[in-house]
Amino acid sequence: MSDEYNDENFIALLPKVRGRYLFDVPLAPTTWFRVGGPAQITFKPADVQDLCFFLQKRPMDLPLHVIGVGSNLLVGDGGVEGIVVRLGQGFTNVFVDQATIDVGAAVLDRNVATLACQEEVGGFEFLCGIPGTIGGALRMNAGAYGSDISEVLVYAHVFDPKGELHRLTPHELGLSYRHCDLPKDWIFIGARLKGQAAKGQEIQKKMSSLLAKREHTQPVTSRTGGSTFANPEGTTAWELIERAGCRGLQRGGAMISELHCNFMINTGYATASDLEMLGEEVRQRVFATTGVELRWEIERIGNRVESVGEKVT
After folding, report:
1. Catalytic choice (71, 227, 257, 273)
2. Number of Cβ within a 10 Å radius of residue 275
3. What's the helix, strand, coil split of the chain in %, to 5?
């Protein structure tokens, strides 16, 4: 990033918040792939009021991005221009009332599943195997093993780009399979979720079964980003990738997992460009073989840099 963005004149344009601004902070250590360049500006709001004030007063010509724990994110090697918002401690509130759970956007999915089990609230078991936050789950209507967040969502609290608060139902959010209609610069800050009464032992048994299945079928100990592509209607992405002969396909340090071929892996020295170009090669081969155009499930942000890695093998 250019030094011009760190001078006092530029900093003076930013609202005086209670949270923190950071400049040119590498994003690679915060993503599961461990790749990508720095964020021009990172903003960590102190709480909901701080975020609201920032949105109302921020320079509107700067691009705005929101990221969680980076579990389903690929950041370009050239970094991210504008402002990256990362929600922290001020967005981790959780309150349970019978079968209803009010939760902040920065709460981990698996923590909601664990709490629901403790409170004997069923319907949230699928969240135990999703490595992200509630905010991220809302953004992409995350799901696993036949369930997704739209099924337990009553409404979400969302800020629009100008800091106006909205309370939106699943229908108003336009939630569908791994998709939300809201523009990317709308920020989820929390949600009300609802399950049903269930026995804690039965919930724990189901969660243990789901976690065991996940560990057996997915490369959970590797540097990965979760499912790479959304499942097309009537089939699964991994079956199409298998048919196209892409299991084990490699470019530079990026590889399609041998265990589950809808997962990409950073074997240790991959760049973001290696991973993205490998994904695009898979999409091309699947289309050539099956006529199906795979849709990226992994969120990709930031500037691309021409890869100097090895060709696909």
Report:
1. 227
2. 31
3. 30, 30, 40
- The rounded Cα 278 to chain-centroid distance in angstroms is 20
Q: Is the pLDDT of residue 312 over 80?
A: no
Say how far apart CA 259 and CA 256 lie, in whole Å. Answer: 9
Catalytic residue among 139, 297, 299, 307: 297
Helix (H/G/I), strand (E/B), else coil: 182: coil
> For residue 274, what are the CA distances in angstroms to 77, 182, 253, 265, 311?
10, 30, 7, 10, 9
Residues near 234 by beta carbon (within 8 Å), at least 6 away in sequence:
none
Q: What's the pLDDT at 136? A: 95
Q: Is 227 a catalytic residue?
A: yes
* 297: annotated active-site residue: yes
Of 86, 178, 223, 251, the active-site residue reads 178
At position 211, the amino acid (one-letter code) is L
Count the Cβ atoms, other than its own, within 10 Å of residue 44.
18
Kindly indicate the confidence band of residue 308, based on its pLDDT and cuts at 50, 70 and 90: low
pTM of the model: 0.91
Q: How confident is the model at residue 13 (pLDDT cuts 50, 70, 90)?
A: confident
